[in-house]
Design goal:
Two copies of one chain form a homodimer. Chain A contains twelve helices and four strands. Chain A is an alpha/beta fold and 239 residues long. In chain A, α4 packs across α10 and α5 packs antiparallel against α7. At the A-B interface, β3, β4, α5 and α7 of A face β3, β4, α5 and α7 of B.
Chain lengths: 239, 239
């Protein structure tokens, strides 16, 4: 890394011990004069489709607009369309927590729920992701964009997702360990559920879906019990 | 209709001649002392799944909170969960324009585009629906809720949708009339595209996806040309 070259962070996550996002980790290890060069790219973008040249749109966020524009220009092609943003935190938080909602989507499948429930889950999932992001300083509008809503829809509606498989396993009464042994690999959402839950607890942000997934993964609650608790919360205003 | 009984409007649409929404039409024909009883119910709710008792969540909006709560109480069951809102316009506008975005989703399928493009379309679709709703006095947050985002996701991700079939037909180069003859019935989005386009024009709201669908349906533009124009608009900030 040297001055003049943007550092584009594409991996999203919350570090378990420090509860830092990836851009915070990068800033933590880079000297301050290099911080303006940090950019985050996020959005609904299955790599396979990007490679095939299928149309894809993503968000590129950097605190300095000219850095975001530099990254935008470097990546913009006939089929790959980056939109710029100044909201680094808003751009990356959706990519961390979407995997937790995808596990919940798998649980919903596994319990035999349908498309209405999935659409509600995505909607309420975005509400709690936005709540967390805003508490971390993000602009709520960013979460309604490609890196928030767009990525969440892609992950939750896709059957390919490992997270979804984890959710279906949980619904069938398997433990997280059993499911991961069967999968032969780690589903991101399993770790994300832990760090998102911990961050929400520390910042006192209400995240009922994340909370439910965490209880199923780490607190041995039965799926039907957990989901019924979620559905039967007191009826109330939408926000 | 008599005082004391809420009028729950579940049909959504924009009347072509007057460009009024259904709640505006109802208020137009009811005497003012009955206006407080007008409520709108909207959200991701395939009737078939509701009838089967599969979990469903919707928004109930009325200008008077006690009316919204009365409707909420009347409909709330173990599996049907209404959330209240005071934003009548915000609650109903999503239900009108989602069908237009669903046609665009069908066009995207028909051109061989993938899940990345669909997720981007839903996201950008919600941005322009929100823009129109806000211009009509809605709270933008309502559009990120069940009646906006939730219903849009359900409609666009579902293969059952007639609107989607219309879009696929347009992508194959058929005319709107040919497609509707084959379908044997009217797809809501075909009318909605006309009224939403007209309303957007009158209120000077930018709605590029609606505009594109309208051009394909009513202005004989070729699908690839229309979509390329949409994708190749100047790169820019996300909002």
């Amino acid at each position: 890394v040297h001055a003049g070259t943007p550092v584009v962070c594409v991996a999203k996550g919350i570090e378990l011990e420090t509860l830092m996002t990836m851009s915070e980790v990068i800033e933590d290890v880079l000297p301050v004069p290099l911080h303006p060069y940090v950019a985050v790219m996020s959005g609904p973008s299955f790599a396979k489709e990007v490679a095939k040249g299928l149309p894809t749109a993503v968000t590129v966020a950097a605190r300095w607009e000219r850095i975001a524009r530099q990254v935008q220009d470097a990546f913009h092609t006939k089929t790959f369309r980056p939109y710029t943003s100044a909201d680094v935190m808003g751009c990356e938080i959706g990519g961390c927590v979407k995997n937790v909602v995808a596990i919940a989507a798998g649980i919903s499948d596994g319990l035999g729920f349908g498309a209405n429930a999935l659409a509600a889950l995505i909607t309420r999932g975005l509400v709690e992701i936005t709540r967390l992001a805003v508490r971390k300083g993000a602009n709520p509008l960013t979460l309604s964009g490609l890196s928030g809503l767009g990525d969440l829809v892609l992950t939750c509606e896709s059957d390919l997702s490992r997270n979804r498989t984890v959710g279906r396993g949980l619904a069938a009464g398997k433990t997280a360990d059993e499911i991961q042994r069967e999968l032969g690999q780690v589903a991101e959402g399993v770790r994300n559920a832990r760090s998102a839950h911990e961050l929400a607890r520390r910042l006192e942000v209400e995240m009922p879906i994340t909370e439910t997934v965490h209880r199923l993964l780490y607190e041995n609650v039965s799926p039907r019990e957990a989901v019924t608790t979620l559905m039967m919360r007191e009826t109330k205003p939408e926000r």
